[in-house]
Structure formats: C-alpha cells, structure tokens
Amino acid sequence: MKNIIIAWRNLWRKPWRTIITSGSIFFGVLLSSLMTSMQYGSYEAMISNVVQFYSGYMQIFTEEYHENKTINNTFVLSDSLESIIKNEKGITHYTPRLEYFSLASSEEITKGSVIIGIDPDGENKVTELKKWVKKGSFLNNNSTGVMVAVDLANYLKVDIGDTVVLYGQGYHGVMAAGVYPVSGILEFPSPELNKQFIYMTLKSGQELFSAPNRLSSVVLMVKDNYHMPPVLDNLKEEIKSPFMVMSWAELQPALVQMIDGDKAGGLFMKSLLYIIITFGILGTILMMVSERKRELGVMIAIGMQRTRLSMILFFETIFIGLIGAVSGIMVSIPLTYHFFRNPIPLTGDAARTMVDMGIEPFMYFSMQPDVFYTQAIIVFIITMVISIYPIIKSFSLKLTTALRA
For a Cys-Cys bond, which of 37, 237, 351, 380 suits 361, CB 3.0-4.6 Å? Predict the structure, then answer.
C-alpha cells in the first residue's frame, strides 16, 4: 500500500510530465474510439438499410421457397407457426407478405416488377414503409390501388390516379392479370428499390395471383442486430421442416462479405494507429525515466531496494495508464454521442457512392459499449507492456552513472 501512495505522490511532483505522458494515452483512446465508432456506425447503417427497407432481421418461409422462389412454393400461416412467433419475446413486430414477379404496363410501356402484397399496418411497423410515400397516400386494409416506386413510375409514365396493368402467372399456372389505380408513389434511398417495387394489400395480391391465404414469407423484427442471435437460435430450434428461418445475414451474403472486407481494412488501419500510440507512449516513458535517472540513483544510494523501486515505477505507469484511458473514455463518449445524434453529411463523389449502394449519404457513428471499453483496454495493455521498461531499468541502472546524470 505504501508503494502505491509513494507512486501516486511521485506523479504529481512534476504534473506536466504526468499530463504529457497521460495525454498520449488519452489521445490514443480518443482516436481509436472515434475510428471504431465510425466503422461500426457505417455497418449499422448498412444493416439498417437492408433490414428496415425490405428484408427485416429474419424471415420465415418454406424450404422449397428458399430453393425456388415461385408462387407454388408459398404456404398458409398455421396457428402453430404463428404461436411460435408470438411466444418469442425477442420479436418486436412481424408481418406477412406475398411476393412474386409480374409485368407492369401503362399504355405501350412494359417492365418486369416485384409485386409485394402486404398488411399495411404490420408492414409499416416493421419497415416504416409509410415514411417513403412521396406523393399520394399510404395503403389501408380496404385499398384497391397500388403504390409504385418512383423510378418505375417515371419509366411507366404514371402518376397518382393513373392505372397500371399487372400481368403474369399465378398459383399453379393460373393467369394473373389486373388493372389497379396508382394511389401512392414511393421514393426509397436505394436506387434498386426505386426501379422495381409495387406494393398492394395482401388481399389484393392473393386475389391477383389466385393464391387465397397464401404467403411467401413472414418478416420478423427484433430490437436491433445485437438482440437477434438468441432469437434466431430459439426459432431455429422450434421451427421444423418444411419451414425454415433465416437472418438478414444469410439472406444477404454479399453485404456480409463487404462488411467483413471492410473490417479487415479497418483492422489494418487501427493496427497502424496502435503502433503509433505504442511509440508515443514509449517515447514519453523513456523521457520520464531518463529525466529521473539521478533521482533513481539517489534513492538506491540511500538504501531503497531495487525491487521496491521497480514496484513504485510499475505503479506509476499503471496510474498514468489509468488516467489516460479513463479520461479518454470520458471525453470520447459525449463526443461520439454528439456525432451519433448528428451524423456528418457527405457531399460530392462520396455521397453519390453511398446513394448508389442504397445508403443515406451520412457518416454515422455507433454508441455500442464495446466501442469504448475495448479501445481503453487495448491501450491500457500496451501501457502495461511498456511498463516493463522502467522495471528493467531500475534493476540495470548503474549507480555511479546515475549519480553523475
């Protein structure tokens, strides 16, 4: 205990030396936390776009539908399956869908489209679809019209009040055809969604494809991506063949690969940052020991054991590391929270690239706890490794040389 008190007092005999040494650790924690938060924030934005715009966190469908997404492989939602969904506490919302392909025509213009039959209230709770209505009105359960994505509407040259003809193949090869008024125009941040989607009520979709009560999938939502794994594990245990449940990651392997690739690049950049931090801390510790060479020599000369001296120097380094790491966390949390609440808007080529990827052009930040404590722990460990130097120096210090310093 006495060694700890002496070490703490020694730090503040020359406060500027302590502040400079702790400052290098402080900036290391701050910079690595901001960099990691920005990296995690970009991943969360990508996942949020995929999840909230369309796929949800998880989907339930038949094994046959997973292999061949045809209307013939749809299913009727049974009471037992719905009971499993309702009894899973981690699920916040769920909504049924009937999704298939059809030709959409207006006068002489025709284009292949994705037709999605939805429960308007349920879909809005899951994907907040209503906020993407640019013109017109959102669907309700009694609607007979459709909502068309903006680029598809422009291509077909239709607006609110105009009609579109949908023509395709229904359940078991029955002809699917219908004429529907356009009640709303949707504009998503994703260009791909804007080019192909047409929404109608679930009842209208089932009538169009002659598939009463049939669904292509049930979309499930949880609080966030960090709450999904246990829910997914539970559902995979309870949902048996011929049904299956898949997460957004399993449904979007390309996005997962892109995130993994970016993580590898981010790890390389953080490794460079940690190397710079290591040399910065090492430089200040070397300076601290060098300046105190005569002081250390005097302490040994008056009878202090080298073992005790090494312990004092070790505790000094620990205190410096703690001061830098804790202050770095204390400053990085409110600073990151500011950017979390106010994402940095991007412009120019960077903004266009993100829009093309279906991501809103902002630099997002994350407030996940591990963003902060992980960086503090890593930098603190680096400091502890560097603390070996003053310990070795206390044992290898030549007394005559030190007293002349």
Answer: 351
